[in-house]
Amino acid sequence: MANSNLRINMTGTESEPNARAKRYQTAIEMAAYVDQQGFTSVNVEEHHLADNGWLPSPITMASAIAARTNHVDIGIMALLVSLYDPIRLAEDLAVLDLLSEGRLNFVAGMGYRDIEFHAMDKPYEERGAWMDHVLETLLAAWGDEPFEYRGKMINVTPKPLTQPHPTFLVGGMSKPAARRAARLGLPFCPPISTPVLETYYYEQLAKYQQQGFVYSPEADFSLLFIDENPDQAWDELGHHFLNEVVEYSSWKKEGLNRPLEFNSDSVDALRAEGRYEIITPQACLERHEQRPDYTATLHPLIGGMPLDRSWQCLNLYAEKVLSPLRASS
Fold it and tell me: What is the pLDDT of residue 253?
């Protein structure tokens, strides 16, 4: 079957409580639906204090998804591990790994917004050292033996199903991030392909006598919405895409290159940029047929998208893309 991913980040969540609850419930229903339709994965994200409601509790959301699904991988892309107490994080992720029967994976991100560190009472200026502490503690906590933590021996339970630990990669776009991943023998996941950084990572793996690999999205990665009439859909729905992009771009930080960052409030400019696409089911089917390794990442709830149009997007993909692919396999 085709590689298909459902993205859930809850951007554009309504201010009215009942409507907000309905959107969250719909997200879980959609996860259950794509699980039945043969999707490969469902991914959630993490950001805090966002004006448009960006999902702040990815472990809670991923747990709800795990309870309603049986087959899809469940990814947290990314989990901002530097904002957590490491022992509690080890416990929560172990429980989620057990609930999902090993379907959990995540990218360990450090974070870059000082307001998030302030709100979570974590040291922004020492975030690199704190991330080292969190990752080292996670790996020790998931081991079989007790270990020394802050001067006392402890044994964190339960242990995860996946051994030696839940599947995760270290995110980042810097040499310290690559070096951190290599030192710990963990895969490295930059958000865009960077050959120089990848070479450095492999050099560091050799230095630390570790094994690992690099994973980054394809150069032409885009977020998809499926509609029979893309031109009309952009006119009617484009502002929902902007809702997400404008919020994300407002967090711009000097010297930090972030994929999907956008410096305009124009729907036409966003469409031309190509990172967010509205395409027909037939166009999506052709991509899968022409590129067996292609992954379609659907983002039906983007920026407060009306729920009926969100469901329409998913149904079109299931009925006019996955169904023909299944029939021809």
Answer: 80
Neighbour tally for 84: CB within 10 Å: 19
User: Residue 220's pLDDT is what?
Assistant: 86
Q: How far apart are CA 59 and CA 272, in angstroms?
A: 34
What 3-state DSSP class applies to 255?
coil
According to the model, what pLDDT value does residue 183 have? 98
Q: What's the distance, CA 210 to chain centroid?
A: 26
Provide the residue type at 217 as one letter. Answer: P
Query: CA 300: distance to chain centroid?
Result: 15
133-163: burial string, b at 16+ Cβ within 10 Å, e else = ebbebbbbbbeeeeeeeeeeeeebeebbbbe
Work out the burial of residue 293: count CB atoms within 10 Å of its CB; fewer than 13 is exposed, 13-18 middle, 19 or more buried: exposed
The closest alpha carbon to 171, from 299, 266, 258, 298, belongs to: 258
Q: What is the mean pLDDT of each run of 10 residues along the chain (329 residues)?
A: 94 91 98 98 97 96 98 97 98 98 98 96 94 98 97 98 97 96 97 93 98 92 97 97 93 76 87 96 97 95 97 98 93
Report the alpha-carbon distance of residue 208 to residue 212 in Å, rounded: 11
- pLDDT for position 136: 98
The pair of structure tokens assigned to 202 is 């492999």
Whichever domain contains 206, its CATH number is 3.20.20.30
Residue 318: asked if its preceding bond is cis (omega within 30°), the reply is no
The separation between CA 220 and the C-alpha centre of its own chain, rounded to angstroms, equals 17
- Helix H segments across 187-250? 195-208, 230-249
pLDDT at 13: 82
- How many structural domains compose the chain? 1
Segments forming the whole domain that contains residue 323? 3-328
User: pTM for this one?
Assistant: 0.95
Q: Are 166 and 93 in contact (CB under 8 A)?
A: yes
